[in-house]
UniProtKB/TrEMBL annotation:
Record localization: Cell outer membrane
Signal peptide, first to last residue: 1-17
Record keywords, A-Z: Cell outer membrane, Membrane, Signal, Transmembrane, Transmembrane beta strand, Transport
Gly residues compositional bias, start-end: 71-82
Domain of life of the organism encoding this protein: Bacteria
Molecular function as annotated in GO: efflux transmembrane transporter activity; porin activity
UniProt protein name: TolC family type I secretion outer membrane protein
Protein species of origin: Glycocaulis alkaliphilus
Amino acid sequence: MLAAGLGLSGLAAGANAQTLNETLEAAYRTSPVLAAERARLRQTSEGVVQARAARLPTLSASAGISDGESWGPGSGSGGSGGDVNYSLSASQSLYSGGSIDASVDQALNRIEASRWNVVSTEQDVILSAIAVHLDVVRDTAIVDIRRNNVDVLAEQLRAARDRFEVGEITRTDVAQAEARVSGAQAQLSAAQATLAASRAGYERVTGLTPLDVEQPEGQPDVPETLAIAADVALESNPLLLSALFNEQASQAGIRLARSALRPDVALSASASESRESDFTGRGRGSVTVGARVSMPIFTGGLNESRVRQAVAAADESRLQVLNVRRSVAEGISNAWNSYLAAEAVIISSREAVRANEIAFEGVRQEAFVGLRTTLDVLNAEQELLNSRLELVRAERDYQVAAYALLQAMGRLTAEQVGLEPYEEANIGENRRFWPNFPLTGGN
């Protein structure tokens, strides 16, 4: 949906220009914050494999050798002997009171919650990349405007001095022009420092040195109404989805705790052999097969306490969902209003630039015929400068507000901005177990 709106496909870039797409790609691929969240997801994804393992049979083997001496009555003449031992054992859970199903269900929901946390972090990184990209664009434009202002004021100062030499204006007019040039030079230095800070922020977020950072074309597509935006947010916001899956994991935790109150049935089998290591070759072995049923009768209230603890944890998760849902509603409202405000500011800023351009040209022409003073010209030029600076800032704020609105909706993911989504290899490997593993049944 956003590729066209973002202007990621058709930017008219210079040879060395850094497009918004390149900025997003670099941030997405190199962000340590996002990489750490992916690592956390990899950790969580192992939970389903570990939970599934409880349903599968276990098999173990052991071997050992022992040697020793014996003496005394009946032991022969100080003979020595040794044994070589082999054993093989297997066990299979037949019924675990539902603990295995609950563990797998809990693990799956935790994976989904973690995956949506990755999406949330992904959106944060993308919005940060957009912001620093536009910060550099804005501050570069401000430096250019400030530098041009210094040049214009310097030219006006030269003209003022020439007019002073022929007696058209007073020394006061020249001093006013000199003061404006000095002030403009100071403002240029401040703007250059701000640009340096923005470039450092760009490098921090993307890992790239900003060269010719390009102004993106167009605007992202945003909903027409707040109601539409809110509906999308309540369905797609990753923080809310993560909270919902955490709630489901907590419900599975209740079932897991209650399973400890039920019996446990397991089948076991073992085979062993012990053979003497001397020349007689005598050996003895055994094979056993059995079933074990265990049922907790009294645990000092431990299992019941764990059930109550799990219920309380589920209540906490449910209330956390309510809290996140309210936060999402507040966030989407704030983002929408910020977007509307930024849109209004950019419209008024464009009108202010147009009006101040006309006013400045009129004051300058009137000054040529003596109807305006040098101070009038300087003031008009300053008003025009301020309106141009305000427009540059408004353009940046308007674009960031639009992307922030999409983030609040959950529509600022890598795929939705035209990036190739990152796929964890081992998560895909673990996922192959999930379809073949029943989530309901006797275990």
